[in-house]
Amino acid sequence: MRPVDMNKDQLAEFKQAAEKCYEEYKALGLKLNMARGKPGSEQLALSKPMLDCLTAADAAEISDDIFNYGGLDGIPEAKKLFAPMLGVPEENVIVFGNSSLNIMYDTVSRCYTFGAGEGLKPWKDCGKVKWLCPVPGYDRHFAITELFGFEMINVPMTEQGPDMDVVEKLVSEDESIKGIWCVPMYANPTGITYSDETVRRMAALKPAAKDFRIFWDNAYCIHHLTDTPDKLLNLFEELKKNGNDDMAYQFASTSKVTFPGSGVAVLGASEANLKWVKKTMTIQTIGHDKVNMLRHVRFFDGKFENVLAHMQKQRAILEPRFNIVTEMLEKELGGTGLGSWVKPNGGYFVSFDALGGCAKRIVALCKEAGVTLTGAGATFPYGKDPQDRNIRIAPTFPSTDELKKAMEIFIASVKLASAEKLLG
Amino acid sequence: MRPVDMNKDQLAEFKQAAEKCYEEYKALGLKLNMARGKPGSEQLALSKPMLDCLTAADAAEISDDIFNYGGLDGIPEAKKLFAPMLGVPEENVIVFGNSSLNIMYDTVSRCYTFGAGEGLKPWKDCGKVKWLCPVPGYDRHFAITELFGFEMINVPMTEQGPDMDVVEKLVSEDESIKGIWCVPMYANPTGITYSDETVRRMAALKPAAKDFRIFWDNAYCIHHLTDTPDKLLNLFEELKKNGNDDMAYQFASTSKVTFPGSGVAVLGASEANLKWVKKTMTIQTIGHDKVNMLRHVRFFDGKFENVLAHMQKQRAILEPRFNIVTEMLEKELGGTGLGSWVKPNGGYFVSFDALGGCAKRIVALCKEAGVTLTGAGATFPYGKDPQDRNIRIAPTFPSTDELKKAMEIFIASVKLASAEKLLG
Predict the structure, then answer these.
(1) Is the domain of B97 the same as that of B196?
(2) By residue range, what is the domain housing residue B370?
(3) What pLDDT digit, counting tens, does each position of B129-165 carry?
(4) Do A216 and A339 share a structural domain?
(5) Is residue B61 less than 8 Å (CB to CB) from chain A?
(6) Neighbouring-strand partners of residue A216
(7) Of B40, B181, B209, B272, which has the most beta carbons under 10 Å away?
(8) In a mutagenesis test of the A interface, which of B289, B294, B348 is the best target, namely the one with the most A β-carbons within 10 Å?
(9) φ and ψ at residue B178, rounded to 5 degrees
(10) Quick check: ipTM above 0.90?
(11) Could you read off the pLDDT of B287-322 as tens digits, one per residue?
């Protein structure tokens, strides 16, 4: 019988069992972390050979330009290598330092202080600025727009991506809406990929604000976990078809391809957008780390297909972890009505929706029993999940044994919190 | 006889000779560059062994934390290594990416958007913001404050540093003055080092604006060219004595120690300032490239004395170049009254002051004859040298042979432009 269908006595019994189970796990005194989308040790090891790709002996043979000042927008070989990741021509790429988050922050900051393009009013002078946030979403995105004081508006995520009826209506009516955060592929945290129709509608938006910008964070564009990966329609091409070339910035990085702390990050955008970016960027820096760009180019022998092959090695490490999570959820919670989740075809997370009002309690119970999760609410602007339901599970960092233990504790916590809730 | 003392006929003769000489050089069709403070090939070679300091085999032995996300303010070993460069305790250091210019830009941008500290009004909301610019100075500094729309005020440089009478008066009277650019050691371009008194007076400023900040760009702090290097009083300690702990940000980098494009840059500041920086920095990025930090730490075996020893190798390459410049100037222009310059004890430049109204013409003549110099005026805000006198000579990048040729052309151009000027 499903707990949601139990009478009070049955529920009390269910709760007692859940409590006993939870207390047993708690007594183990574990310390496990499923909080952040961090690659684990085995994954990092895959890229360590990259450190030998550019030795002192190699350096003696190559142009000094690599080591010196200059090259504001990155080395051509790196643009070429990573352009297919963004799905844009290489001339529409700027290669930055190690962090796509930093590019996004700087892009918001630039629009805020100087405007989104030549002759456009800085957002700081536009009165109240509003921003669309598909939810659940990525906490670090929301943190940027919160810092700049933008009013964030929740947009429900469907299985096709953000609810485009809502997006279209809001964007076309309200000039103060200047942007939207999107993780179009294997979305953080839901794992879904925007449907072709969603991408088409996104590219065809007719915003009231002419400086409306889509922040297309394609963080998981090649981070597949199956033989039948999702496919994402090419936004850049769709924008062109609609004459909306300048409406999006696209971001990606090798943070979860090579090293999270020492990868390279890229921006893809229209010619006009890149020109505008470079106008202030050339005041901000003389250029990013070209040695590390070249190290990446050499590691992959300049070929995008080698990047994809590398991602298959990442998959081999990650797929079993995701299977542990979804199989354990299915086995213990499937059909109980105590939660829902989707097995993603890629990305870094499993998004779990608990009974309403239970997420905070589950995260707290897990914490008490030694399992750190992303804070409940973190997947919503201002950390406020209106239904207190969503929890982001990040299975990549722990070992498989640790992950199994952590999931046992998670499941015990879900049962206990649900029983408490249902008993009222 | 000095050209400035010649009569018209003598001058005409002088001009004719200068013209003949200049045309001969021009006919050589050379292509030489003394425009930017770029290290040359031999200098870059000194640091190439650093590329072997962190191999895949090494990586297998060290903590994965180096490769993963995290470590917002840099690895402790790097803080420790570079703290003496800034002259601050290691807990007062944040290690960034490859560019101190980027830190300066971000610092201005942060103050502009969010204020210079907790509870302080953002500069964007302060009406007209003014900024003190010791002149001649560094064009990339001026470009930042120009971009943000600050009104830049020229402050004359003396042989002791910025004219502190002017600085004290302006800063204490005008609340709209929010900052000053300083290159306190081997200043760009004059090469002088601020005297102890200048540093003391700078640290003891009583600004009308409580959010006034000294931007202390110590870019050449260890870039000595003699056995008797200049010494700079420790600003951090002087600020403390005056209770002005929060009044400065200090910047430095290894751009001209290891690789200009792939070094590490550091910020030194008070605890309160760093806390404020990190408050927004943690939204901007998860952290900078720790692998490159560790590479630097290993290259120098974690010891600042090894950094200094490395700079002696740099000096061995650079000192002859600076000698070529100053000896040729002395031999050809010494006592002529056609220009003045100071032989610096360190840094990257020789600052040349021509006869008033001649700098642009000299740079143009050089360009015509194939020698690229920093644009005349570049050492002043808005590119406007009120007397059209100052030219920045950057001797580091060309080979010694090229440098000699370039200086011959420079000197010929000075003579010709001066003769033209004196003839009226």
Answers:
(1) yes
(2) 3-43+308-423
(3) 999 999 999 999 999 999 999 999 999 999 999 999 9
(4) no
(5) no
(6) A182, A250
(7) B181
(8) B289
(9) -105, -10
(10) yes
(11) 999 999 999 999 999 999 999 999 999 999 999 999
Return phi, psi of residue B263, to 5°: -95, -165
Q: Is A94 inside any structural domain?
A: yes
- Rounded CA separation B226/B229 (Å): 6
Cis peptide before A189, with omega less than 30 degrees from 0?
yes
The answer to whether residue A398 neighbours chain B at the CB level (below 8 Å) is no
- Number of A:B CB contacts under 8 A? 166
Residue A48 scores a pLDDT above 90 = yes
Whether residues B148 and B244 fall in one domain: yes
- pLDDT for A267 equals 98
Q: Does B55 touch chain A (CB under 8 A)?
A: yes
Place of tokens 């600052």: B351
Query: A203 and A283: one domain?
Result: yes
pLDDT on residue B1: 87
B377 and B243 both lie in a single domain? no
Q: What are the structure tokens assigned to A76, written together?
A: 């051509």
Instruction: Check: CB of residue B81 under 8 Å from CB of residue B297.
Output: yes
- Asked whether residue A315 is assigned to any structural domain, the reply reads yes
Closest-approach residue (CA) in chain B for A295: B51
Both tokens assigned to B391: 């030219």
Same domain, A116 and A238: yes
For residues A48 and B56, give the distance between their C-alpha atoms in angstroms, rounded to a whole number: 5
Residue A131 included in any domain: yes
Is residue A278 within 8 Å of residue A287, measured between CB atoms?
A: no
Domain count for chain B, please give it: 2
Q: Report the distance separating Cα B388 and Cα B381, nearest Å.
A: 13
* Integer Cα distance of A192 and A341 in angstroms: 11
**Cβ(B184)–Cβ(B235) below 8 Å:** yes
Chain B neighbors of A374, CB-CB under 8 A? none
Is there a single domain that holds both residue B225 and residue B80?
yes
Residue A34 maps to which CATH number? 3.90.1150.10
- In this structure, the answer to whether residues B117 and B266 fall within a common structural domain is yes
